Amino acid sequence: MTDPTANPSPGAERRVEPFELGGATLSSRLILGTGKYQSAATMNHALEASGCEMVTVALRRVDLEEKGNLLESVDWSHYRMLPNTAGCYTAEEAVRTARLARELGGWNWVKLEVIGDEQTLFPDNEQLLRATETLVAEGFVVLPYCIDDPIICRKLAQAGAAAVMPLGAPIGSGLGIRNPANLRIIIEQSTIPVIVDAGVGTASDAAIAMELGADAVLMNTAIAGAGDPVAMARAMRLAVEAGWLARNAGRIGRKLYANASSPLEGLIG
Prior knowledge:
By secondary structure, the protein is an alpha/beta fold. It has a single domain, classed as Aldolase class I (TIM Barrel), CATH 3.20.20.70. The chain is built from nine helices and ten strands. It has helices at about 40-50, 70-75, 90-105, 125-135, 150-160, 180-190, 205-210, 220-225, 230-250, and strands at about 20, 25, 30-35, 55-60, 80-85, 110, 140-145, 165, 195, 215-220. Strands 5-4-3-10-9 form a five-stranded parallel sheet. It has a three-stranded parallel sheet with strand order 6-7-8. Strands 1-2 form a two-stranded antiparallel sheet. α1 (about 40-50) runs parallel beside α9. The model has no long low-confidence stretch (mean pLDDT about 90).
């Protein structure tokens, strides 16, 4: 009998393909945050286990006077820095924070957050769009975190955003993908990368996001708050890869009734 593993099909060795984002090519489709870790060592081990290439940092929450602060705790030769505007509630605040980041380290990439509600941390669409227009005009690569609304995603793309980052669920909730129908519409209509950001709780959530067709997934709490952040980081890495491969392999259609795996014709009497 022929060994089925001797000559595997091309698909058996297929790897996740890189994707283009803001003029850069990223091999990893998993982006991580840096908040809520119990220690810098745990964070660095998790970043490594995740295989991520881009790491986001809330610069407003970094004490630059503190020895060993977050900017000093990460080996940035291994990762692309993505400053974010977490904690901003107006377009003016967010724009000012992005400008300060560029002055501080020359970073012209920004994960743009403009929050409209303290309890849900939902974005303020109007303020977010204004900030996007301003920062794009100033030469920033803008990645806006937004509601899973196809209309605001289309407007952000028209404003020049490099990607849209619709939430899967409220920040830090761990509820997973609450509205797959909206995400599917956003992905189908989008002319720029779609990165699912916020709400992921476990590996299956990340896989679902990728199976829906997302280009990448961004997360923080799901890993930093896990019982074993390093193990969860590896699980998320594998889930993102599995979801992308499944999406591109082409799943079978859903049917209401059973369909025998083996044909019924020609059965031995």
